[in-house]
Amino acid sequence: MRQVRLGQTGLSVSAICLGTMTWGSQNSEAEGHAQMDRARAQGVNFWDTAEMYPVNPVRAETVGRTEEIIGTWLAARGGRDELVLATKVTGEGQDAVRGGAPLTGAVMRAAVEDSLRRLQTDYIDLYQLHWPNRAAYHFRDIWHFDPRGGDKLSIEAHMFEILQVSADLIAEGKIRHIALSNESVWGAARWLALAEKHGLPRMMTVQNEYSLLCRQFDSDWAELSALEDMPLLAFSPLATGLLTGKYAGDVIPEGSRRALNPTLSGRVTPQVFPAVAAYLGIAARHGLNPAQMAIAFCMTRPHPCIPIIGATNLEQLELALGAADLVLDAEVLAEIEAAHRAHPMPY
Predict the structure, then answer these.
(1) Domain ranges of the chain
(2) Regarding the domain delimited by 3-241+298-329, which CATH topology (the fold level of the hierarchy) does it fall under?
(3) Which tens digits make up the pLDDT trace of 96-122?
(4) Model-level pTM?
(5) Left (φ > 0), alpha (ψ -120 to 50) or beta: where does 10 sit?
(6) Is 303 in contact with 7 (CB distance < 8 Å)?
(7) Is 127 tagged catalytic?
(8) Which of 130, 155, 163, 169 lies 20 to 30 A from 177 at CA?
(9) Is 204 a residue whose pLDDT tops 90?
(10) 53, 123, 279, 347: which one is catalytic?
(11) How many angstroms separate the CA atoms of 79 and 56, rounded?
(12) Which residues contact 220 (CB under 8 A, 6 or more apart)?
């Protein structure tokens, strides 16, 4: 698989990143190992996980299990230096992790140590803040987002603390780079400004939701991403499977993610199925697989973008990885833009 720059990290990674969040819930350890074997054989060297995984649902008794599955694979297979491994520390409000406590410097240090132990590695390449402590507009919260609850001085004091601890962890060799997830443009700009002002590590990437159905990144965030060389790691490029067509007609296949989470965390709305139908129609007219078209679209953007793909079986994984070689022509892209104008924000 072709390689791309990971922003200013100096690292070269596969054009597609392997997601892992179902390993330990929908997928067994053996299935997770099989996916890692297949991904590495296909040239994927960039993997993303999180301390709170698996999901569907997040439970206190399974927190960290996905990292453990990666760790047993690394212990058995080796080759850690050939991989770029990203994980995340949980933010405030997830009761299954530390009782929902906010992220602090001390929490971050302890979480790094726990992730290193579970992953059976000496270092983490990219350590991401899963979401900010303050109110944010991700996870469908854009419909009732209120930014007035935050105090700028307190927010920046927290950011400074996290950057200082990050500098220490980098100096100790426990993490190589730090990064953001589910962050706003204002937040990213403040992180960058504080790092530059105080000579502290900069945030290297941002992991936000992005797909044909969710394109909030395309305006202010796209500008920051391009001009500050902060790549988007696009999670849910298939919109939790909606863009594969398997839920078309509002069906719920047995064993699917929607069988566990009927609303797909708020993505199933009256507007979403007409939007999905528009994109399925484009793929059909041009002889494209709709899932591959959706993933390939992410790699056409004017800002750096690496889609994170997740699968629950090897067939899905092979299909998704095939998108790396797909080039969408001008006609397809024009039809996608027309569909986006007709269905700009379906959830």
Answers:
(1) 3-241+298-329
(2) TIM Barrel (3.20.20)
(3) 999 999 999 999 999 999 999 999 999
(4) 0.97
(5) left
(6) no
(7) no
(8) 155
(9) yes
(10) 53
(11) 30
(12) 185
